[in-house]
């Protein structure tokens, strides 16, 4: 631990992330050069590098390269020093870790029952830096791998927060929150994260060496395969919604049973398909997903890639520890949802579609944008679209199967509005990425679609409250969505009245 790794000087080897160990550190401007890499959140890492002019106190608390005692022959001195070194490196990995002060406050608030608003808010802000630490440890492992496998690892642990929160919510019977968080995470990655990658990557790589406009490129095999998989995931949501409407005249129990059977069968197929996709991408057709060597990478000759700071075992321990802490905070946050919704100031759909994706995708979003600015679009695509595929083909079906095992009626039947929003988003992204090229204009278009989808949630909440008061519903202005809800309400009232007429 503490050894430096450097890249080979050639661009092709740099793209494949093949590292070789060296005995010396390259120091520039008082810190190790990392090719302009940043930590998961909030720009350059605040990690401080060694200086011979610093005292022992500074070395013990802030020097992440030389912690006194790590090389001691005495195990009672060496192992505590190494544990402190890992803790120090992790805490100093990002300025966002200042929010870790909310972790003990959130846990105490949940244990002492300070009130739903305080418990939810404190644990909400506690999970944000924990997600950043999780992302930091993930990058320490992923940087030792290639772009394809590294993107897969980043996307997997990038979804860990949503998975933990969803498992806790599913155990508590909050199925609406689980479904909304899954869809919100997909839309966030598919539209906002991918759109910002295209936008920022296109702006910072707008022109070539001759001053002409240029586009960023990514592996065509990745684009074609991901488009097909996202279309399939959209179909897996549309079919249960269509079946629900076809069975509109059936009894509620019969409809729910039919949707459960269809969802569980579809979940098994999606899980098998995801395993087949991994085998296809990582083994048999690996060359389709490997980024091609590019002559204009935007890297200086002396510029180095980000080098791992933690060893693989240390990073693994951090992953496990942070995952356990996130599960505790998520448990308190989910337990406060019902009381928070009862206040009438927020809905479960808003929590799932907007708040939970913000907690889970913040670090992932910044990571994808950073690599897109560096013109590594394959890695950015692996984090953004790859994350959406994993949620749609792995996490959501796995939650359906987990609900089956625990007796919770988790299905793939989402609300009609949510299903339409997801299908349209997949359509937009499919037409955007199928050519294997991107620019800032396409990024602006894709990211723009995210805001109407998420911005309509408060409108939907407002109209739901209006429909709960029949006498006042006609006295309010309403949007197009509200008009549709009102028409359905009037139709139900007229049908109910006609059914009681004689003859």
TrEMBL record:
Protein name: Vacuolar calcium ion transporter
Protein family membership: Belongs to the Ca(2+):cation antiporter (CaCA) (TC 2.A.19) family.
Membrane topology: Multi-pass membrane protein
Localisation: Endomembrane system; Vacuole membrane
Ion transport keyword on record: yes
All copies of domain Sodium/calcium exchanger membrane region, residue ranges: 116-282, 317-445
Listed GO CC annotations: endomembrane system; fungal-type vacuole membrane
Gene Ontology molecular-function annotations: calcium:proton antiporter activity
Main subcellular location: membrane
Gene Ontology terms describing biological process: intracellular calcium ion homeostasis
UniProt source species: Rhypophila decipiens
Role this protein plays: Has a role in promoting intracellular calcium ion sequestration via the exchange of calcium ions for hydrogen ions across the vacuolar membrane. Involved also in manganese ion homeostasis via its uptake into the vacuole.
Pfam name, any one: Na_Ca_ex
Coiled coil: none
Alphabetical UniProt keywords: Antiport, Calcium, Calcium transport, Ion transport, Membrane, Transmembrane, Transmembrane helix, Transport, Vacuole
InterPro entries reported for this sequence: CaH_exchang, CAX-like, NaCa_Exmemb, NCX_ion-bd_dom_sf
């Amino acid at each position: 631990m503490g050894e430096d790794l450097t890249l080979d000087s050639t661009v092709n080897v740099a793209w494949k992330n093949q590292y070789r160990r060296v005995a010396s550190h390259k120091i520039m401007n008082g810190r190790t050069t990392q090719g302009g890499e940043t930590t998961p959140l909030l720009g350059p890492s605040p990690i401080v590098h060694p200086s011979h002019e610093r005292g022992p106190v500074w070395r013990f608390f802030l020097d992440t390269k030389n912690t006194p005692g790590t090389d001691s022959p005495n195990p009672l001195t060496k192992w505590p020093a190494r544990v402190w070194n890992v803790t120090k490196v992790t805490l100093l990995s990002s300025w966002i870790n200042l929010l870790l002060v909310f972790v003990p406050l959130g846990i105490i608030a949940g244990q002492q029952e300070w009130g739903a608003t305080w418990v939810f808010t404190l644990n909400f802000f506690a999970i944000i830096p924990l997600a950043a630490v999780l992302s930091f440890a993930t990058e320490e492992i992923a940087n030792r791998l290639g772009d394809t496998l590294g993107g897969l690892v980043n996307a997997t642990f990038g979804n860990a927060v949503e998975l933990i929160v969803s498992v806790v919510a599913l155990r508590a019977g909050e199925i609406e929150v689980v479904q909304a968080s899954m869809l919100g995470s997909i839309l966030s990655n598919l539209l906002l994260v991918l759109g910002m990658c295209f936008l920022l990557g296109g702006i910072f790589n707008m022109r070539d060496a001759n001053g002409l406009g240029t586009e960023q490129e990514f592996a065509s095999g990745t684009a074609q395969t991901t488009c097909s998989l996202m279309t399939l995931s959209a179909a897996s949501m549309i079919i249960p919604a269509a079946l629900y409407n076809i069975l509109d005249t059936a009894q509620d129990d019969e409809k729910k049973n039919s949707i459960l059977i269809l969802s569980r069968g579809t979940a098994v197929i999606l899980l098998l398909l995801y395993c087949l996709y991994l085998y296809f991408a990582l083994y048999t057709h690996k060359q389709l997903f490997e980024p091609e060597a590019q002559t204009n990478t935007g890297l200086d000759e002396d510029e180095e890639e980000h080098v791992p700071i933690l060893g693989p075992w240390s990073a693994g321990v951090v992953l496990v520890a942070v995952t356990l802490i996130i599960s505790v905070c998520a448990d308190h946050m989910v337990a406060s949802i019902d009381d928070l919704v009862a206040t009438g100031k927020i809905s479960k759909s808003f929590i799932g579609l907007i708040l939970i994706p913000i907690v889970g995708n913040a670090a992932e979003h910044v990571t994808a944008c950073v690599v897109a600015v560096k013109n590594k679009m394959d890695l950015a695509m692996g984090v953004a679209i790859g994350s959406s595929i994993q949620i749609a083909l792995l996490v959501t079906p796995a939650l359906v199967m987990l609900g089956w095992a625990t007796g919770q009626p988790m299905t793939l039947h989402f609300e009609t509005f949510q299903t339409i929003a997801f299908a349209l988003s997949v359509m937009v992204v499919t037409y955007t990425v199928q050519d294997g090229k991107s620019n800032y204009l396409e990024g602006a278009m894709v990211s723009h679609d995210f805001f109407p989808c998420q911005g309509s949630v408060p409108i939907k909440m407002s109209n739901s409250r209006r429909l709960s008061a029949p006498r006042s519903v006609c006295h309010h202005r309403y949007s197009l969505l509200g008009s549709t809800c009102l028409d359905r309400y009037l139709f139900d009232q007229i049908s109910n009245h006609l059914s009681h007429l004689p003859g």
